[in-house]
Specification:
By secondary structure, this protein is an alpha+beta fold. The chain has five helices and eight strands; from the N terminus they run ααββαααββββββ. Strands 3-8-4-5-6-7 form a six-stranded antiparallel β-sheet. A two-stranded parallel ribbon has the order 1-2. About 2% of the residues have low confidence.
Length: 213
């Protein structure tokens, strides 16, 4: 009997460890496509940069190209605005993703701040850094993007290329989903992050869900 209890305890510990490692994305999650859930993939009717690729597809393509450079996590100021070395933060995933699709957030956010100073809590405007702050991006998207559901129950409403804003973080919705249909997120959160594409959507932390076009 004592041996059985020991074995059961060991099994319970193994299961708990597995669950923890899985929850923190240390154990990779299997990836599924929209087609696995009979979800129609959203295709934008806008091609901002006229490159023959719709905005939603273009954003995903640009995000993947940026993340292929394997940026290291570090917050720095750049006179050019956009990081010009191998460093970056969460907002840069969004900025480079949209830039490749024809949306220059550096200029767009700066123009919106100048036209709506009452909406932004900024004492000194600096367009080289303002577009790289999560709070500013949320305000900008509130003003200029389509605001969508933040509920994960309607997981089909979450489409690749969408922007998700968390309480202190931001990312781009991936073209992959988990076993429950919840999409993965392209993001950059820390120096210890194992992958730039992770299963991290947590409804309690989501404060915004947007589509640029």
């Amino acid at each position: 009997m004592k041996k059985l209890v020991t074995i059961l305890s060991f099994i319970i510990v193994i299961v708990l460890v597995f669950d923890i490692l899985y929850a923190f994305n240390i154990i990779p999650h299997k990836k599924y496509q929209d087609s696995d859930f009979n979800i129609k993939t959203y295709i934008s009717n806008v091609d901002k940069d006229n490159d023959g690729l719709d905005d939603a597809s273009d954003i995903i393509k640009s995000v993947k190209e940026y993340l292929k450079t394997k940026p290291q996590y570090q917050s720095k100021y750049y006179a050019s605005g956009y990081p010009d070395d191998n460093y970056g933060v969460c907002t840069d995933v969004v900025a480079f993703g949209l830039l490749g699709a024809g949306y220059d957030l550096k200029e767009l956010v700066n123009a919106d701040i100048l036209n709506n100073r009452d909406k932004y809590n900024i004492e000194v405007v600096d367009k080289n850094i303002d577009f790289r702050r999560v709070n500013n991006l949320k305000i900008y998207f509130d003003n200029h993007a389509l605001s969508l559901t933040t509920s994960l129950k309607d997981y089909a409403a979450w489409q690749s290329g969408d922007i998700v804003v968390f309480k202190k973080h931001i990312g781009i919705i991936s073209d992959h989903r988990n076993k429950d249909g919840i999409p993965f997120v392209f993001h950059h959160a820390s120096k210890n992050q194992r992958s730039y594409e992770e299963d991290i959507l947590k409804e309690s932390n989501i404060v915004g869900h947007y589509r640029i076009s």
